[in-house]
């Protein structure tokens, strides 16, 4: 009993330390964002007169309304297409067990080891040859392809453990492969789809390298990519830079908080089946 209690206390202390280490930079950024514009905030000190107008100034000066719309359009182009293709491939590789599926899955797994920095130059020349440099398609198309290895791996892990009894009963009733996929397996895969959608949305929203290299107009980039131009303009104004960074982080944090239950459900579902 004493050993179990000590383990519980140690676990809670470890979680507390990790939570403080995670939240401390955000608290420091928040207090810095409230300091007078043009000053250099000192650590975690709370300003005597918080300047909440820094958030409005950062939003207006960086034209974040246009950046927000650009990021939304990029996420809307990447995430649905990635979810559809990853779900179809994961269903074929994990549930139908198609011929040559193991070889294809191995190739997808190898794709997980491919760093973005190693393919950014070929992607640049390919987008240039397609005439897409500077447009949002230069971000949408490469990201959709780069997300495929992880997306297929994620969805295959779900479909491998999906119940076969329902599929066999549906086959006996004369269901086609498409009906089996759309009416039976996709509803069962909703937690996995939701969690994958959250991850892809956050990764797309925070995409920096592709946006900086392939798009020169900040209003056509993701918000994280536009932060590079904002930093160049306000790099010495720490309060405005901190306010702009928090505004960019806010949508992803809100998305995770709103769908955290679905995300945790998918993780627990995978751990129980595994």
Q: What report would you give on this structure?
A:
There is one protein chain. The protein is an all-alpha fold and 274 residues long. It has helices spanning 2-33, 53-61, 64-96, 101-111, 116-130, 137-160, 165-172, 177-188, 190-205, 209-214, 223-234, 238-273. It has two domains: 2-53, no CATH class; 63-273, MetI-like (MetI-like fold), CATH 1.10.3720.10. The protein is built from twelve helices and no strands. Helix 7 runs antiparallel to helix 8 and helix 11 (223-234) packs antiparallel against helix 12. The protein is globular. The mean pLDDT is 84.
Summarize it:
The chain is mainly alpha-helical and about 270 residues long.
Give me the secondary-structure category.
mainly alpha
Tell me the β content. under 5%
Name of the level-1 CATH class of the largest domain: Mainly Alpha
> What's the number of structural domains?
2
Query: What is the helical fraction, as a range of percent?
Result: over 70%
Listing every helix as H and every strand as E from the N terminus to the C terminus, the arrangement reads HHHHHHHHHHHH
CATH architecture of the largest domain: Orthogonal Bundle
Terminus-to-terminus distance: 30 Å
Largest beta-sheet characterization:
none
Give the averaged pLDDT, no decimals.
84
CATH superfamily of the largest domain: MetI-like
Shape: globular
């Amino acid at each position: 009993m004493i050993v179990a209690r000590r383990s519980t206390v140690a676990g809670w202390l470890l979680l507390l330390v990790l939570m403080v280490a995670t939240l401390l930079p955000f608290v420091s950024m928040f207090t810095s964002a409230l300091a007078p514009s043009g000053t250099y905030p000192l650590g975690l000190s709370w300003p005597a007169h918080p300047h909440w107008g820094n958030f409005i100034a950062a939003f207006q000066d960086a034209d974040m309304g246009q950046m927000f719309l650009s990021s939304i359009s990029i996420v809307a182009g990447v995430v649905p297409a990635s979810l559809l293709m990853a779900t179809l491939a994961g269903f074929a590789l994990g549930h139908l067990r198609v011929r040559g599926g193991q070889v294809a899955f191995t190739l997808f797994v190898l794709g997980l080891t491919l760093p973005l920095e190693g393919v950014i130059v070929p992607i640049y020349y390919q987008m240039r040859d397609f005439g897409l440099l500077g447009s949002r398609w230069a971000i949408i198309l490469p990201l959709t392809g780069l997300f495929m290895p992880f997306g297929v791996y994620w969805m295959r892990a779900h479909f491998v453990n999906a119940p076969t009894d329902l599929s066999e009963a549906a086959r006996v009733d004369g269901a086609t492969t498409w009906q089996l996929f759309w009416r039976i397996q996709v509803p069962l895969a909703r937690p996995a789809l939701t969690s994958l959608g959250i991850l892809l949305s956050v990764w797309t929203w925070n995409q920096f390298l592709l946006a900086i290299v392939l798009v020169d107009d900040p209003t056509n980039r993701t918000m994280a990519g536009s932060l590079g131009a904002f930093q160049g303009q306000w790099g010495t104004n720490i309060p405005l830079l901190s306010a702009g960074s928090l505004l960019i982080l806010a949508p992803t944090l809100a998305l995770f908080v709103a769908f955290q239950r679905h995300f945790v459900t998918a993780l627990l579902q995978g751990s129980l089946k595994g």
